[in-house]
Amino acid sequence: MDGIVDNEKRALRAELRERRQQRSAAALDTAAAGVREQLDRLVAEHAVRSMSCFLSTTTEPGTREFIAAAVARGIRVLLPITRADGLLDWAVAEQEGATAEGMFGMPEPVGELLSPDAVNDVDLLVIPAAAVDRSGMRLGWGRGYFDKTIGSMEKCPPVYAVIFDSELLDEVPSEVHDQPVTGVVTPTRTLVLHH
């Protein structure tokens, strides 16, 4: 059974990746502005003082404008750094923070490394996703970092996945280890998904 789900996930990820690569620069700029507006509102609603986010790649809904603005407002933003053991270290985002290519070619912050436990005291987790379904199940990119992080937290805060509007699906293939999210942030809206 797991092999079938694995193949379904792989096929869906490939299709979503291809769709993302076809977006124009203008569409990506518009999406980034929308994501910033939605995340600004979400952070205000939850009175967030400390949170996690991620440095978006060139094909993801942009988070970098939001991160810069949040740091400027005094919000402590933790950014993930991949480790070979499948866990995430964290670094505090800085106004003019340097980045480097991480283990899988993704942008990661350069700075003092904080342990995987550093994320335990945040008010909000904002994570990447390939797609999310209406029940809150998230399809990641297949490495399991965020599923492990969410699954290991004693007191998990609200978790929102950042996706494009078209990536909110009726259903995504899932397995036992996959962790649901509280909701999604898209360029046009923020939705709470009950699971």
Automatic annotation (TrEMBL):
Gene3D superfamilies: NagB/RpiA/CoA transferase-like (3.40.50.10420)
Pfam families linked: 5-FTHF_cyc-lig (PF01812)
Keywords (A to Z) from UniProt: ATP-binding, Ligase, Magnesium, Metal-binding, Nucleotide-binding
Cofactor(s) essential for the protein: Mg(2+)
Top-level EC class: ligase
Entry's EC annotation: 6.3.3.2
Catalytic activity: (6S)-5-formyl-5,6,7,8-tetrahydrofolate + ATP = (6R)-5,10-methenyltetrahydrofolate + ADP + phosphate
Gene Ontology molecular functions: 5-formyltetrahydrofolate cyclo-ligase activity
Domain of life where this protein originates: Bacteria
Family label: Belongs to the 5-formyltetrahydrofolate cyclo-ligase family.
NCBIfam families attached to this UniProt entry: MTHFS_bact
Protein name in UniProt: 5-formyltetrahydrofolate cyclo-ligase
